[in-house]
Structures are given as structure tokens and as C-alpha cells.
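sorry for the late reply, my laptop died twice this morning and i had to redo everyting from scratch. anyway the thing you sent over, i finally got around to it. pasting the sequence first so we're on the same page, its 272 residues, then the predicted structure underneath. double check i copied it right bc i was rushing
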Amino acid sequence: MDICQFTHLGRSVQDNDIGASVLNPMARAEARRSLPMTGIPFSGADFWTAYELAWLDQNGMPKLAIADISVACESENIIESKSMKLYLNSFYKKQMESVLAVAEKIQSELCEVLRGSVTVKLFTLDAFREQHPIKTQKGYCLDDHRVEPINIGPAPEILITKGHKKVSETLFCHLLRTKCPVTSQPDWASVYVMYRGKSIDRDALFRYIISYREHSDFHEQCVERIFCDILNYCNPTELTVWARFLRRGGLDINPYRTNSGMYPLRIRETRQ
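ok and here's the structure:
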């Protein structure tokens, strides 16, 4: 039998050895200790989309699907994305009874590693396109504002509100850039800030978002930091932060944090 070699975080791995043990979990609590919060001020989920999932049916014929994976933010761990890519791609030689069997296996193994609630849904290409349309959330785009960039951040102290009038609005920016703490490769995202409360100064919010350009952290941790900073400096009565990151290695990760109890319609951004 042919044996392929993969590299997992600098270590060579044979594809016939790959299983759930290759997944690299990291505790959420460790990163949350550095956040300006007492308790957990949000609920939400990390929405993963896996575009490179294939397996063999009982006759040895290749099958494929797009996986929609939802991980509750209350889970004990997150998973490093390269190990997730390696894990999902290991299915390409596995013979599975059905699409449902694939989804159940992935869900069970992720639940065990993440130590939390996970939902896995598999879609055909046509079904995925219908249920996850490409669109931009309605709101005000900050991208054309002219501000003085902050190149070393994050800089939450610049966040301010204006006036006393309460508003309800969505502000968004397609220029969120962070760096992977493992590889230092850039990660790009569209980020949405939906809130009720005193009007957040738009120039200040834009400067704050682009101050992440050289910040190294995982997607989930960046979104939680943005949520906590806005909550602490602007004190909205309701707040939601949702970042939709571009895919790398066939995966995109879309962390969603809110204190409103509302959950979003499942869409894709233009770059996804």
C-alpha cells in the first residue's frame, strides 16, 4: 500500500497513522486570562467551513461534501487549524457507510477533543450554495475612512462614544488582519460590530480594528478580545462581534460572540 507523508506542526506523519489523535487542542482558558473581563460576558460559537472533505463509499468510489461545523464557545478547547486540515483530509482513504456516518464520526471525535458541544452538517455543493448565500450584512462600512493608522496594537484605549443618544447599528470592516501565532502567516477577515447603546465613534473603531495588523493570536481569541474591548470602553447594552476569516488550507473559521442571545443567518462573505 502506498504511504503518503504529511507534516504536522513540523513533525512528519504517515497518512495511515492519522486519526483524531492528530488534532491539536488548546485550552480557551489560557488565552482568556489575558482578556479584560470577569466571568464570560458572551455566548456564541465558532463556525468552521471545511471545503476539502472527501471519503470513499463502500464500493471504493470517492465522495465529497462541504462540512459546516459549529463549536460552542463554552467548549474547553479550540483546535489548531493545521491539525484540523490534516484530520479532515485523512478521510480521503476511509471507506464510510454513508454521509451520515461521516458526519457522526467527525462530530463524535471533535466533541471528545474540544470537550464541548459540536454540530457537524455535510452539504452537497448545490445545497451549500443555496443555504449559505454570498452576501454582506447590512450596515455601515468603515473601510473608506481616512484615519491615522496604528501599526502596533491592539489599542483599545482609543475607543470612545459620542453624545448621549442611544443607537442600534451595524458597523463593519473588511480590513481586519491578524497573524497566525504558529506560522506568522497573515489572516484576513471581515468583522461586524452590531450593538445598541451610545454611538461608537466610527473613526476610533476603524483605527482600533486596523491596529490588529501585526497582532498574533488565533481567530477565536482575536474576536473575544475585540468583544471585551468594545464592551469595556464603549459600554453598549447589547453587543455582537462576528468575524468571517478567509479560508486557509480549505478551512475558514468564523467566530461569533454576543450578549444579545441572537444568532446569525448563515452567509458567506464575498471573499469566502
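Helices lie at 28-32, 81-89, 99-114, 125-131, 202-210, 219-234.
thats about all i looked at so far, will dig more tmrw
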